Amino acid sequence: MMALAAAAFSVMHAAIRHLSDEMHPFEIAFFRVFFGFFALAPVFLRDGWAPLRTTKIKLFAYRGVLNSAAMLMFFFSLSITPLATVAALSFTAPLFATLLAMLLLRETVQLRRWTALLIGFAGTLVILRPGIAEIGLGPMLVIGSSVVWAFALMLIKVLTRTESSVTITAYASIFLSPVCLVAAIPYWTWPGLEQLAWLAAIGVVGTVAQTAMNQSFKLADASAVLPMDFSKLIWASAIGFALFGEIPDLWTWVGGVMIFAGATYVGIRESQLRRASAAAASPVDPVPSSEDKPGRA
Fold first, then answer.
1. What's the structural domain count of the chain?
2. Structural domain that includes position 69
3. What gap in Å lies between CA 51 and CA 175, rounded to an integer?
4. Does residue 241 lie within any of the structural domains?
5. Degrees, nearest 5: CA angle 257-259-265
6. CA distances, 62 to each of 11, 57, 59, 231, 290 (Å)
7. CA 141 to CA 295: how far, in whole Å?
8. 3-state helix/strand/coil string of the chain
């Protein structure tokens, strides 16, 4: 399931890149959320409005604004940055999330996770090579998106204490749609039938990717599924070369491996600590939450 998610995300990113030659990325982001929202229809047909009952509407609103900002930056970066570079730098999101969890949620980070964080951020410097190569707008947008998304992850961690994953997903769509629409209006052009087909495909493939990723965390431990996430870099390199003639340099691969290694170790270590904490509180080992690694898209 994680391999499927990685491939689907890569295909969606390539479709965004292709369509951005004809439409502004902000408009694509709106339609991504708009068409993706229809995937929730079966839930509401089955449960009615029950998934929308909450007392945390303000937190959902804050999360929606942050998620929108991260998505808009990420989609814009896809229009001007090689796919492999975007894939490599996007692995930094869990690293920033760990730092924020330490600062905002008072989570303890031991030496091994500190080492993993340093390796991951060193990989970012390897890709960007500040002072040696010019840092473009695209890579900076990917990193900025990761930082903003990390803040959104903090709110998601708080929300998962009391809210179901269905409620969190539903309100994400509800708040993302108007924010992305407002951002898209200045650049609005009515899509033709072919463009609508591409936009619908982006929404469907994005939903498939998100669902498959969440399901992978339900079916297996993080240590089993996270390594498959690295295939996003392989897919992005292959698709970028085949469709756009992009050839990632050695530094992108080296830095990408370093970032992914650091982020994967952090994810696996946090999963182990959660299981140990849950085992101490209960004799039954719970299934890891799918909300631990939601996607920007």
1. 1
2. 2-81+135-234+269-292
3. 15
4. no
5. 95
6. 29, 9, 5, 32, 21
7. 16
8. CHHHHHHHHHHHHHHHHHHCCCCCHHHHHHHHHHHHHHHHHHHHHHHCCHHHCCCCHHHHHHHHHHHHHHHHHHHHHHHHCCHHHHHHHHCCHHHHHHHHHHHHCCCCCCHHHHHHHHHHHHHHHHHHCCCCCCCCHHHHHHHHHHHHHHHHHHHHHHHCCCCCHHHHHHHHHHHHHHHHHHHHHHHCCCCCHHHHHHHHHHHHHHHHHHHHHHHHHHHCCHHHHHHHHHHHHHHHHHHHHHHHCCCCCHHHHHHHHHHHHHHHHHHHHHHHHHHHHHHHHCCCCCCCCHHHCCCCC
Instruction: With respect to residue 95, please indicate whether it lies within any of the assigned structural domains.
Output: no
Rounded CA separation 71/28 (Å): 10
Give me the tens of pLDDT residue by residue for the chain, a chain 297 residues long: 889 989 999 999 999 999 999 999 999 999 998 887 777 777 777 777 777 788 889 998 998 999 999 999 999 999 999 999 999 999 998 889 888 878 876 777 778 888 989 999 999 999 998 877 778 899 999 999 999 988 987 887 788 778 877 777 778 888 898 999 999 999 999 999 999 999 999 988 887 887 788 778 777 776 678 788 889 999 999 999 999 999 999 999 999 999 999 988 888 887 777 777 777 766 544 444 444 444 566
Structure tokens at 195: 């463009």
Write down the pTM of the prediction. Answer: 0.85
Sign of CA dihedral 279, 281, 284, 289: negative
**Is 140 among the domain residues?**
yes
Give residue 119's Cα distance to chain centre: 21
Residue 37 lies in a domain: yes
